[in-house]
Amino acid sequence: MLPYGRQTIDEDDIAAVAQALRGDFLTTGPTVEAFEDAFADQVGAQHAVACSNGTAALHLAMLALEVQPGEAVIAPSITFLATANCARFVGAEVVFADVDPQTGLMTPGALAEAMTRLDGRRLRAVLPVHLRGDTAELPALEAMAKSANAVLVEDAPHALGSSLKFGNTVQRVGDCAHSAMATFSFHPVKTIATGEGGMVTTNDARLAERLRRLRSHGMIRPQDGDPWWYEMPEIGFNYRLPDILCALGISQLAKLDAFAARRRALAARYEEALKPLAPRVVQASRPDWSDPVLHLMVALIDFEAAGRTRREVVEALRARGVGTQVHYIPVHTQPYYRERYGELELPGASAWYERCLSLPLYPGMADDDVDRVVAALADVLGL
């Protein structure tokens, strides 16, 4: 069975965790800072703050920005629930933006339209999602956010290792050249894995200090205070990432270039293999500026023309040993958000959802596995 994604854990990863288990720290120790330093260096940011998962990373970003109840945060509807939920965690209201139906990405035009629906609320943050590993058009989105006195927070769990190029300037996802912060996840299906884990990068020392404080209950230890003394100027959370998982993170991060190369090679093979299935099946489009390390291999399928429902296709592929997934159900259609904001028409998000299907993609796949997946898809669709 080929799942749509899975971790790649080698003996050296196991050895790194075993070494951490033999050390003095199981929770917060020196390995946390070592992982943060290595990650910041990898993406080109001045600061990286580790936390318990990608959702915690987004929540911490909202807390660090001091987003207030009743203020607005714009997020694309094609994303995981956490991108929108992080705004609600702090009492802010979510304004959903549409996406390009070929890429799944929030565009400047979609952001402009969403900004017309603020209903007088102050816009504090815009959360572009680097879907699948392809990057959003950050310079244009940043300029639009700045025009409203808001900032960008990149939701980047899919895009570790990806880069973007505008003019002659190449930038890495996570370097925060256009954003206040970028958030990452190390869930097993992501580019590197720590089991559960997250990271926030920033170039703002004040934000980094707030992130570190808020991930540990909001506690500080005043300078020259008694050795046992701590204070809590504001409430925080237990969002720490333990040494054990950071040891795995350091080991995985050292393989990022190899993981990226393998994902790119598999993606290139998919691109060629899927061409004969067009126009019934096409690969999600890649923006000109984006050089992705794809986390997801999304095929856009005309199920109606094929005379098969998506469920029928998913079940038939599974019977042939091919696992798939759907990324994502538009968040604005979830019962919680429909009850809060009413019905909302976002045609790009709807068009994306109606056609998308994520095919297996992970470094442990063989080249022949790609051919097997595409052959199975062609067979199921009668192509």
- How would you describe the shape? globular
Percent in strands: 5-15%
Largest sheet: 7 strands, mixed
* Gyration radius over CA: 21 Å
Low-confidence segments: none
Helix content range: 25-40%
Average pLDDT taken over every residue: 97
The multimeric state of the shown protein is single chain
DSSP E strands, number:
13
Strand order of the largest sheet: 1-9-8-5-4-2-3
By helix and strand content, what is the structural category? Answer: alpha/beta
- End-to-end separation in angstroms reads 22 Å
Question: Order of helices and strands, N to C?
Answer: HHEHEHEHEHEEEEEHHHEEEHHHHEH
Count of discrete alpha- or pi-helical segments spanning 4 or more residues? 14
Report on the architecture of this protein.
- With 383 residues, the chain is an alpha/beta fold.
- Helices cover 39% and strands 15% of the residues.
- It contains 14 helices and 13 strands.
- Strands 1-9-8-5-4-2-3 form a 7-stranded mixed beta sheet, sandwiched between helices. Strands 7-6-11 form a 3-stranded antiparallel beta sheet, with no helix packed on it.
- Strand 4 (123-126), helix 6 (138-147) and strand 5 (151-155) form a beta-alpha-beta unit.
- Helix 1 (11-21) runs antiparallel to helix 8 and helix 2 runs parallel beside helix 8.
- The longest helix has 19 residues, at 256-274.
- The protein is globular and about 75 Å long.
- The two termini are 22 Å apart.
- The model has no long low-confidence stretch (mean pLDDT 97).
